[in-house]
Amino acid sequence: MVEAPVKNPLLSTSREDYLADIYRIQAAGQNVNTGEVAQRLGVSAASTSAMFKRLAQEGLVHYESYSGVWLTKEGERAASRIVRRHRVIERFLTDILGIGWDRVDGFANLMEHALPDEVLEAIERLLGDPDTCPHGYPIPNRSGETAAPAGHSAEMLAAGERAVIRRVDESDPGLLRHLRERGLVPGTRIRVQELNPIDGTRTLSAGERTLVVGQRIVRALFVDRVVDDA
Amino acid sequence: MVEAPVKNPLLSTSREDYLADIYRIQAAGQNVNTGEVAQRLGVSAASTSAMFKRLAQEGLVHYESYSGVWLTKEGERAASRIVRRHRVIERFLTDILGIGWDRVDGFANLMEHALPDEVLEAIERLLGDPDTCPHGYPIPNRSGETAAPAGHSAEMLAAGERAVIRRVDESDPGLLRHLRERGLVPGTRIRVQELNPIDGTRTLSAGERTLVVGQRIVRALFVDRVVDDA
DNA sequence: CAGATGAGTTAGACACACCTAACTCACTGC
DNA sequence: GCAGTGAGTTAGGTGTGTCTAACTCATCTG
Q1: Which pLDDT score is estimated for A7?
Q2: What value of ipTM does the predicted structure carry?
Q3: pTM of the prediction?
Q4: Domains (ranges, CATH) in chain A?
C-alpha cells in the first residue's frame, strides 16, 4: 500500500505534520527548536531530532544541531501547501458543513493529508476563494505565498480606542468556544471602554454587547485599530 | 505520530483498504482469495497473506489457509463503515464539487481513511442522505446494513424490452467516461430496439438518443425492467 | 494416480516512525 | 571560569507493512 501521496513532492503524513508545524512556529516569528515541535506534535524529542535530520537531508530545512531548524525555500513551498489545505478545510467545515470553529482544527489535522489538489481547488471555488481560515489566519495561495497574519495584539489598545477583530488565537478549543459565545470573532468591532490597570481586565463593547474580559482573552485577540467610526 | 484513527475500532489505513476490498469482492458474490486481493490492491501475494493472518487474529475475517477469507460479523461492520465513507465521498465529489464520476473513485480511495464520523454525517445531511454512490451502488447505513445492489445485467434484456439503468460497473474510468457521454447513467430509461445475434451488439434508445453498443457496455449496465411505459 | 503447474505461504530483509535510556552539549549562576 | 542543569542527540529496540526468494500445497492433466 503506497503512502497516500496527495501529489507532487510525495511527503509522508509525518513529514507533512512536522513541516506544517515548523511553518506555523516560524510564521509566529519564533525559533524552531526540538522541544517545541516535540511538545506540539505529541512526540518525543528523540523522534523530532531524527526527523529534523531527515528533513535536512532532503533539503526541506536547514538544521543547526543543538540549535534548531528553519525552512528552506523548498521546505516553505511544501509546508505552505499543507497549511493551505488545512485552512481551506477548516473554512469548508465551518461554512459549508456548519461544524463549530472549536472543532475544525482537529478534523483538519486528519483530513489535510488526504486532499487531492483537484478537490482542494473545487472546494476553494465553492467557498468563493476565501483569504483566511475561520480564525482569521491567512490561506497561502497556489504559489505558496502567504499574506502577513492580520492584526496586532488587542493588549495594546488604550481605553477609548476602537478596533476590528481580524484574527484570534486558535490553539485552545475551550477558549474558542468562549470567544464565540461572546461574539468575539473576526469581523466584530470592539471598543475598549475601560482598562483596569490593577488586574488587566478590560470592559469591552463588542457589537451590541458589553463584556468584561481578562488578560487571557485579550491576548487571544488580534485587531486593527479603527479611527473614524461609521 | 499516531496513525490517523477516524474513530472507533482504530484500524490502520492498510487494514481499511484490505477490509473494504474484501467487502466489495464478497458483495459481488465471489470468493476472496489471496491473489485477487493482492492484484486489486497492487501489493504482493506475500503481503496479502500476512495481512489475512493479522485480520484473522483480530477477529475481522475467517481465514482458511490456501483457500481464502470471508468477513466475520465484526469485520463486516468495520468494512461497511469504510465503504460507506467511500460512497458518500464519491457523491459529495460529484454532486457538490462537480467532479467527473470517472475520477471520484480514486479520490475517494485517498480520502476515505481520514474522514471523521462527524464530518461524514454532516456531508450526508448536506447531500440529503443519498442511498447510492454516483454509480448506483448502495451506501451502507449507520448500522452497517447495506441494501442489495440494484438491478440485473442488461444482457438479459430481450429485443423490445424497456428498463431503467440502476447501476453501472465502476471499475474502469475510461468506460465510465464512455457511458457518461452516451447518457448511460443511473436513472436513464432505455429500450432494446434490436439485438444482433451474431456479435451481441444492441441498438438502444436511451433517453432521447439512439445508439449502438457492444457487449462490453451492455455488461457494464445493471437495470430494472419496466413493463408499462409512462 | 503421479507429476507438473500455479497459487499460496513462509522466511528473511528493509524502510519508516516511533519509543526509552544513556550520553553530550551549551548556557547560567556562583 | 567551572559546575550543574536542562535541552538535544545518539544508541538501541519495537511495530507495521512492504518486498523478493524459496518452499509447499492443491489441483489438473496425461
Answers
A1: 39
A2: 0.88
A3: 0.90
A4: 8-147 (1.10.10.10), 152-226 (2.30.30.90)
